[in-house]
């Protein structure tokens, strides 16, 4: 069995953060000093991150998060990997830790009942249960739970409007799920707010379900927000539910269109990928700004001149003076 030296961590935590800029600064510096890379969002409502690093560095990072009383109960989904899943570290302050248009919803006050993966597995096929996918189109088209209801949305912020179409489900047990659990915190709370009475959420999302319950009945692959693009979940009864955008053959190979002006997330088979040079159409293939295709369909943003200290004001440990680091 291949020995993998790196970990990928997926996590979130709803908690009050008063001085978000100060905490962003501290958090950013810790990541740099411990070679943690990834995307982290800090908001007055909490934390949301996906990061990668050597296993020992990821252990330090988890200890760092847990050492803060505000985030002591943070749960991490930990996956082994053979390298960094990111090339940069970005720690940003934003109004929400997931863009939802539901800023008035506080999951710390009200949210759906959390189901552990085994509990979700035991409940999902009961007669009075419906499974609701709260993710976007390009995510559920690649993979979803068997018999799940999916919503025609391009972004999670469109979720509240789509709930208007679900009134006929109010007498059912509604089991919500998403990639890591964060969207369900607000989605399930909003369903309760709209009169749904028996609402649940898959705690830890699809990723935790794959790790702890074998991924049974999750059909297709799970879209992830790092350079893997898509990951296998189901180790029990895997199947493919997506089709190549170009030829229509069954395909779970997810790519970003090589035309940066399009950049659509689509399943495209290997043969069509090479034929169109990573583009999703002839028009995109002929676009003057089309990126070179290397067979993966993943395009890292240009890292030329990348400085992990950009915008960081840090206090030097030795002389206690503040130093502003520029490009």
From TrEMBL:
UniProt catalytic activity: uridine(34) in tRNA + AH2 + O2 = 5-hydroxyuridine(34) in tRNA + A + H2O
Keyword terms, alphabetized: Oxidoreductase, tRNA processing
Top-level EC class as recorded in UniProt: oxidoreductase
Domain of life, source organism: Bacteria
Rhodanese domain mapped to chain residues: 125-218
Keyword Zinc-finger listed: no
EC numbers: 1.14.-.-
Gene3D superfamilies noted in UniProt: 3.30.70.100, Rhodanese-like domain
UniProt-listed Pfam families: Rhodanese (PF00581), Rhodanese_C (PF12368), UPF0176_N (PF17773)
Entry function: Catalyzes oxygen-dependent 5-hydroxyuridine (ho5U) modification at position 34 in tRNAs.
Family, per entry: Belongs to the TrhO family.
PANTHER family attached to this UniProt entry: RHODANESE-LIKE DOMAIN-CONTAINING PROTEIN 7-RELATED (PTHR43268:SF3), THIOSULFATE SULFURTRANSFERASE/RHODANESE-LIKE DOMAIN-CONTAINING PROTEIN 2 (PTHR43268)
NCBIfam families, per the entry: PRK00142.1-3
Protein name: tRNA uridine(34) hydroxylase
Taxonomic placement: Bacteria, Pseudomonadati, Bacteroidota, Cytophagia, Cytophagales
Name of the coding gene: trhO
């Amino acid at each position: 069995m291949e020995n993998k030296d790196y970990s990928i961590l997926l996590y979130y935590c709803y908690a009050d953060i008063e001085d978000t800029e100060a905490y962003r600064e501290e958090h950013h510096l810790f990541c740099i000093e411990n070679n943690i890379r990834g995307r982290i969002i800090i908001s007055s409502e909490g934390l949301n991150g996906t990061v990668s690093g050597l296993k020992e560095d990821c252990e330090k990072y988890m200890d760092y998060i847990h050492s803060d009383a505000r985030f002591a109960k943070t749960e991490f989904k930990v996956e082994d990997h053979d390298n960094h899943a990111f090339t940069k570290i970005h720690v940003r302050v934003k109004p929400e830790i997931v863009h939802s248009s539901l800023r008035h919803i506080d999951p710390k006050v009200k949210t759906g009942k959390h189901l552990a993966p085994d509990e979700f597995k035991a409940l999902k096929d009961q007669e009075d249960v419906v499974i609701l996918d709260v993710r976007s189109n390009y995510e559920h088209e690649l993979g979803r739970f068997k018999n799940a209801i999916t919503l025609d949305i391009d972004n999670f912020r469109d979720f509240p409007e789509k709930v208007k179409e679900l009134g006929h489900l109010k007498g059912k047990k509604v089991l919500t799920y998403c990639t890591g659990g964060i969207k369900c915190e607000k989605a399930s709370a909003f369903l309760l707010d709209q009169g749904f009475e028996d609402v649940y959420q898959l705690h830890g999302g699809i990723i935790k379900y794959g790790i702890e319950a074998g991924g049974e009945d999750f059909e297709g692959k799970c879209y992830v927000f790092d350079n893997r693009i898509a990951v296998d979940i189901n180790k029990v009864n895997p199947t493919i539910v997506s089709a190549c955008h170009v030829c229509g053959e069954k395909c779970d190979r997810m790519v970003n269109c090589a035309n940066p002006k399009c950049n659509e997330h689509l399943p495209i088979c290997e043969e069509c990928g090479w034929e169109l040079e990573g583009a999703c159409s002839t028009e995109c293939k002929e676009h003057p700004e089309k990126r070179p295709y290397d067979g993966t369909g993943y395009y890292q943003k240009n890292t030329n001149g990348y400085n992990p200290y950009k915008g960081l004001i840090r206090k030097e440990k030795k002389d206690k003076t503040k130093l502003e680091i520029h490009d």
